[in-house]
Structure formats: C-alpha cells, structure tokens
Amino acid sequence: MLPRLAAAMLCLWLGAAIGWLFGDLAHAPVLGSLAGGSLGVLAVVVFDAARAHKLMRWLRGDMEAAAPRDRGFWGETGYRVERALRQRERALLQEQHRLQQFLQGIEASPNGVLLLGADDRIEWCSSVAADHLGLDPLRDRQQHVTNLVRAPSFVALLQSSRDGEGVQFPRPGGAGTVSVLVRRYGAGMTFVLTQDVTERERHDAMRREFVANVSHEIRTPLTVLAGFVETLADLPLTESERRRVLVLMRQQTDRMQTLVADLLTLAQLEGSPRPAADRWVALAPVLQRVAADAASLSAGRHLLRLAGGSEESLTGLRGWEIAGVESELYSAISNLVSNAVRYTPPGGTVELMWRLRPDGCGEIDVADTGIGIAREHLPRLTERFYRVDGSRSRDTGGTGLGLSIVKHAVQRHGGELDIQSEPGKGSRFRLVLPASRLRRLPAVDMAAEAKALPQPSASQRA
Predict the structure, then answer these.
(1) What average pLDDT does this structure show over 335-359?
(2) Measured between alpha carbons, how far is 37 from 122 in angstroms, rounded to an integer?
(3) Based on CB atoms within 10 Å of each CB, which residue in 76, 108, 187, 281 is the most buried?
(4) Angle between the 283-298 and 326-342 helix axes, to the nearest 10 degrees?
C-alpha cells in the first residue's frame, strides 16, 4: 500500500511542477499547478486501473495460465490469489488420490460394497458387488436398486427399519448364493456389503452330510451288535449258532474299527502340516507292503501284476525315492490297490505300475478289469462316504472314505489324482507326483533292490 501511495504522491508533485511551469508561461501558475497535479493523479489512476483490469480478466477466465506479474498492489494480489488457488488444487489432487486408493482397496476386497442414496439410488458400486448382484458399475448408477435386484428378502430388508441385519438369496442366474448386510449411515445413506457364500454353504452342507453319514455308519453295526448281545443273553443257542453269532459280531466290530481308523487318518491328513521336501522314502518297500496286502486280500482269486509284473519294470524302480511321509504314501497306494481287488470279479487282473513322465513327474497307476464306474459318478468319487452302490460297497467292506484319504494324501505331497473308468471295462487310478519330490540315487545294488521288490507268485505268473 505504501509504494502505491508514494507513486501517487510523486506523480502528483511532478504533475504540479510541470503545470506550474506551463502556468507561469500563461501567467496562471496556481491553475497550472492544479491542472498538472490532477493530470498526474489521473495518470496514476489510469495505470492502476489497467493493472486491475488485467487481473480481473485473469480471474474471469479459467485461471490455468499464470496470474499477471505486475508490480504493486494488483500484482501482489494476483500472485497471492494464484498461490492459494494452486495450493487448493494440490490439496484436491491429494484428496482425489487418497480417494482412488481407498476405492482401489475396496475393489481388491473379496466382499462387494454398494452405496445407496436417500431414495435407494445407487451412488457407487464396486465390481465385486456388481458381480454378486448382477449390476453394471457405471450404467446402473443413480438407478433404484430395487428395480434391478428383485430378491424379495433383499427388498424387504431395504424397506424395513432394521439395521445391521443380513439376508441370503440366490445370485442372478442361480450361480450360487450371496449374503447381503445392510447398514444405515449419514443423512439417509445406506451401506450394503455383499459376500459370495456359495463355498461356505457347500462346506456346511458337506459337514452336515458327513456327520449324518458317520452317525449312520456307526449306528448300523451298533444296532447289529446290540441285537446279537440281546440274542446271546436271552435265547438258548447251540454251539454252532453261538459261533456264527460271534463271527458276525466280530465282523461288525472290525467294520467299526476300520471306520474309526479311516476317520482318524483323514483328521490327521487335514490337521497336520505339509510333508517336508527333504524326507525321502524309498519306493520299493512301499510297493512291497502293498503287494503283500493285495495278495492276502485277493487270496489267489485275481491275477496280480504288481509293479508291472515283468523284470524290466521291476528294475525300473531301482533307486527311486519320494519326498514325503511313508505312511501317507502307503495308505494312498494301498487304498487304490485294495479297491481294485474288491471291485474286480474273480479271474480279473489288477496292475500296479510306475513310470517317469517326459516332464519329470512320476506316475503310480492302479488299473483293474473290474466292474467300472459310470462317467457321472467320477467327479464325486473322492467325497467322503460317496458310494456308487452303497450295498455293494458295504458287502466288500468299504467305508466310503478310501478315495478321500487318497486325494488328501497325494495333494499334501503336491500331486493329483486322476480317475478314468467305464462300466464293464475296468478303472484306472493315477497318482501324479511332482518332479520336485522325486529323485533317483546314483548307485544302487540291483541285486539287493530286486530282493526288496515284490515278486509275483507262481499263481500270479500263470
């Protein structure tokens, strides 16, 4: 303000001095001084008005360019206005950046978020919520959500005054189930949280089915045992009848023991840490135990071609080791071989084969010439207690848990179970183990290895 006043005074005195000189020539020095001073002040005002006009023109525009860089009051004013404007723009950009980060965080969440206005119009919708509810995040903005999501339970929840409650209803198209939680906030705003609960519902259903199956599987032999105990206590039986009842009781007891053992095995597989990758198990002894169990179970009724049944394939196992837990590997292979023996009619063939794939993975194949399995049952074979034919499975002594144990055991070792089967043409179960869990020792005593491997009996060679 002071420089501006000093400039005005300087122009006033300078104009007065010039006016005095001209007035003195005209014999009117006072009038000349007044006129000169007035002109000096007018010049200052005009010059100042020009600067003010430049600033106002910049203020009326988009203010994208720099403010006028004049000296004095208007230059200072323009500079300070521009600085405040740029600071506000930077603050706005920072807020927009934080908002984008916040929205990106919501988008990364597996749960969906839907923001509704006072009249249930869609203010914002995440892509996950749009997928859950069948919406379009951009096209459906400002639309009434109840016109787009017509599930009666959802509409009733929005129209009620209940807060913090949720409902479940089928996803659009029937591809699963979605859970929706509604909370009110602000001035009539509504926060809607969506979650896909399809897998949770499926797991809950499987858990309920598992409990029901276990109860049924245990209750059946217990009922039989209770009946036999009552018979032994109340009825006079001959020695042969008593022995027959005791044999049947032993069978039911063995059935319950097998069921409990399989349940404990499953619980151990699901609850224990993944096998270490530096604990190596020789393949030959595992196959030797499987061979002995299969021969005992078959009792000469089948042709068992264990490890391929030929000298070449036996030596192909020479030195191979698998990183994992021996008991789990044995349980997986044994379950497959015992199932093949049980479901193959007398005179059929059961083969256990090992080979190294071109990609470095290993395969353990169990093939049989049994009754086979229809294609529609294959995806569910590894479910607990799933049976293609329940009566046949119980007759053969199965618990319905064997393939579940196989699947969990091989998956814990980083592998997978592949099943191929056709009714009347037999089945093939393939355990594929990753190359990272296989190794072959560089030097092995072939004679000692051959002694450790299962050798086909005379009946099997026939």
Answers:
(1) 88
(2) 69
(3) 281
(4) 30
Instruction: Calculate the alpha carbon distances from 222 to 227, 246, 251, 256, 258 in Å.
Output: 8, 14, 11, 8, 14
| Strand partners for 432 | 363, 416
Residue 445, SS3 per DSSP: coil
Q: Rounded distance, CA 333 to CA 413, Å?
A: 13
Q: Which of residues 183 and 17 earns the better pLDDT score? A: 183
Residues 325 and 366: beta-carbon distance below 8 Å: no
pLDDT digits (tens, 9 = 90+) for 365-403: 999 998 888 888 888 888 887 777 655 545 555 677 888
Instruction: Quote the distance between the C-alpha of residue 174 and its chain's center.
Output: 20
Q: Which amino acid is at 436?
A: S
Phi, psi of 316 (to 5 degrees): -65, -20
The mean pLDDT value for 265-282 works out to 81
pLDDT at 138: 86
Higher-pLDDT residue of 307 and 266 is 266
Task: Count Cβ atoms below 10 Å from residue 161 Cβ, excluding itself.
Answer: 5
* Sheet order of strands, 416-422 included: 303-306, 349-356, 362-368, 426-433, 416-422
Residue of 153, 237, 211 whose CA lies nearest to 385: 211
The DSSP secondary structure of 231-272, one letter per residue, reads: HHHHS---HHHHHHHHHHHHHHHHHHHHHHHHHHHHHHHHHS
Q: Output the pTM of the full model.
A: 0.56
Pairing of strands 303-306, 349-356: parallel
Rounded Cα distance between 266 and 410, Å, is 12
Q: Residue 356 corresponds to which tokens in the numbers above? A: 């190294």
* C-beta of residue 323 within 8 angstroms of C-beta of residue 276: yes
- Sole residue written with tokens 């196959």: 287
For 73-132, write each residue's pLDDT tens digit.
677 777 777 788 888 888 888 888 887 777 777 777 888 888 898 788 888 888 888 888
Q: List the Cα angle 389/395/399 in 5-degree steps.
A: 75
Name the helix (H) or strand (E) containing 221. helix 198-234
